[in-house]
Amino acid sequence: MTSRHPGGAPATNYRTAELLHAYDHLCNAASLSLALEMALGRVTDEQQRAALEALAGEVVDRLEGIKAAMERIRV
After folding, report:
1. Could you tell me what percentage of the chain is helix, strand and coil, using 3-state DSSP and rounding each to the nearest 5?
2. Contacts 24+ apart (CB under 8 A), 56-64
3. pTM exceeds 0.85
4. Which end of the chain is more exposed for a tag (fewer CB within 10 A), N or C?
5. How far is CA 1 from the centre of its chain?
6. ∠ CA 43-34-30 to the nearest 5 degrees?
7. What is the pLDDT of residue 53?
8. In the Cβ-directed half-sphere of 68, how many Cα atoms lie within 13 Å?
9. Distance between CA atoms of residues 44 and 18, nearest Å
10. Which long-range contacts (CB under 8 A, 24 or more apart) does 24-31 make?
11. How many distinct helices (H) and strands (E) make up the chain?
12. Maximum distance among all alpha carbons in the chain?
């Protein structure tokens, strides 16, 4: 008998979808991290620094999303 997720989908399909979602977060975080690294070398004024800080906040948000998705997959 196949274990099922509360929504009715087989557990393996649910976990695959969650894994793909986590991978999407990981790719986005990697892209944001690269952009952040590139911007660090070009910061010359306060407006740019504020934009860089906002980008860093997005990276943190993506990493938190990855953590939450990985925790759901383990359950």
Report:
1. 80, 5, 20
2. 58/32, 59/29, 59/32, 59/33, 62/25, 62/28, 62/29, 62/32, 63/25, 63/29
3. no
4. N
5. 33
6. 145
7. 83
8. 9
9. 40
10. 25/62, 25/63, 25/65, 25/66, 25/69, 26/66, 28/62, 29/59, 29/62, 29/63, 29/66
11. 2, 0
12. 62
Q: Is the dihedral of CA 44, 46, 50, 56 positive or negative?
A: positive
Closest C-alpha to 25, from 56, 71, 74, 70: 70
Return the domain boundaries, the chain. 11-74
- The DSSP symbol for 7 reads T
Q: Block means of pLDDT (10 residues each) for the chain, length 75 residues?
A: 53 82 83 82 83 84 83 75
| pLDDT score, position 50 | 85
